[in-house]
Specification:
The structure is a single chain. By secondary structure, the protein is mainly alpha-helical. The chain has one domain (about 1-165): Growth Hormone, Chain: A, CATH 1.20.1250. About 90% of the residues lie in helices and about 0% in strands. Helix 2 runs antiparallel to helix 5 (about 80-130) and helix 3 runs parallel beside helix 5 (about 80-130). The chain is elongated, with a radius of gyration of 18 Å.
Length: about 170
């Protein structure tokens, strides 16, 4: 995020603040994710988080100025509420408390492996192209894909519950 801020004409100190704004968004969004999950449900809450993250990611490309970039970096940090908290809530909601215990380690392993692979890949795309648009659009696309996966999981979960209740 720092190098992106520099490319937008910020000073090094200002550009470094974008990382801090993203991490504050990370922390705040986890609190919001937990509270909203209890109030409106796990699936809708994480759909909102994916939507905010994707929107902020794309908007970062078309925005300049310290304060708008700080605000968008804050919202960009919302994606971490999904990986840090959302996966656990989603797994528990979808699989139930018993299956959760066996599924959660697999999900954690898979998400960590993708994260470990994805971050350097995104960096390599920028290094190869010299353009931030491609990595940002890849990131936004991943958020939108996650959103569509959640829509599918919610529908499947509702369908499974309906079938279970009928039997």
């Amino acid at each position: 995020m720092t190098s992106y801020g520099l490319s937008k004409g910020l000073t090094l100190s200002q550009a470094s603040l974008l990382v801090s704004a993203g991490m504050i968004g990370n922390t705040v969004s986890k609190l919001i994710n937990g509270i909203l999950s209890d109030r409106i449900g796990v699936f809708p809450t994480n759909m909102i988080m994916f939507g905010i993250s994707a929107t902020a990611t794309v908007a970062l490309l078309y925005t300049s100025g310290l304060f708008p970039l700080l605000l968008l970096a804050f919202f960009y940090g919302f994606v971490y509420s999904i990986s840090g908290l959302g996966y656990s809530l989603i797994d528990k909601e979808y699989y139930g408390p018993e299956q959760y215990k066996s599924v959660q380690p697999i999900v954690v392993f898979a998400s960590t492996a993708f994260y470990a692979f994805g971050n350097p890949l995104i960096g390599a795309v920028f290094d190869y192209t010299g353009d931030f648009r491609y990595p940002f659009f890849i990131s936004a696309t991943c958020s939108l894909f996650g959103l569509f996966c959640l829509v599918y999981l919610q529908r499947k979960s509702n369908e499974d519950k309906r079938v279970y209740e009928e039997n």
